[in-house]
Design brief:
With about 190 residues, this protein is mainly alpha-helical. It is built from 8 helices and no strands.
């Protein structure tokens, strides 16, 4: 075996030089055609103004209730005062996903705990309805959409009843959540 110097061991072979040169030329052609294709080097100056690629938080709108169920609730609310609560309870029992019914039942409760319980059930049924309609834990649920009001009334009622029984952390959670869902605020009535 002939004697090799260090320079001989690291000297590039002719085929390595040819291959490297071919790769560099190919990359230059790709860069040139990409520049021409996409107009690189011909762009106008870039603005320093930010670009908003989002339209903001999504808004969820609950679907309208079955008109027949809404009519039954209207009839129940029009019943004489002594029978009104039982008439509304019958509507809710027949349509337990009807959020306006839970809100009305909470409004008609015989005492604070009964009202609290009805509003809490309506609140949880409302969360289920929101999730079923695309809400993923963030985004708006606005009072301005009439179909959202049953849920929002239940949450507002839950906060009010929690205040009456001294459950202040629940009051704070509900009120904060209401403002997150609709920063314009929920009307008191």
């Amino acid at each position: 075996m002939p004697f090799m110097t260090q320079n001989d061991a690291i000297a590039p072979t002719t085929s390595a030089v040819v291959t490297t040169t071919a790769i560099v030329r190919a990359c230059s052609r790709v860069t040139a055609s990409t520049s021409a294709l996409y107009g690189l080097g011909t762009l106008a100056p870039v603005s320093d103004q930010p670009i908003n690629l989002s339209s903001g938080l999504p808004t969820t709108v609950l679907p309208a209730a079955d008109p027949a169920v809404a009519d039954r609730l209207a009839d129940a609310l029009g019943a004489p005062a002594p029978q009104r609560r039982e008439a509304v309870a019958a509507v809710v029992a027949a349509a337990p996903r009807f959020l306006d019914g839970w809100a009305a039942l909470g409004d008609l409760g015989r005492d604070t705990i009964e009202r609290y319980a009805a509003y809490r059930v309506g609140y949880h049924r409302g969360l289920d309805a929101l999730r079923a309609n695309g809400w993923r834990g963030s985004g708006y649920v606005r009072w301005s959409e009439p179909t959202n009001r049953g849920f929002l009334r239940c949450m507002r009622g839950l906060a009010d009843m929690a205040a009456e029984i001294g459950e202040l952390d629940e009051v704070e959670r509900c009120r904060t959540f209401l403002l997150q869902l609709d920063p314009s605020g929920i009307p008191a009535d």
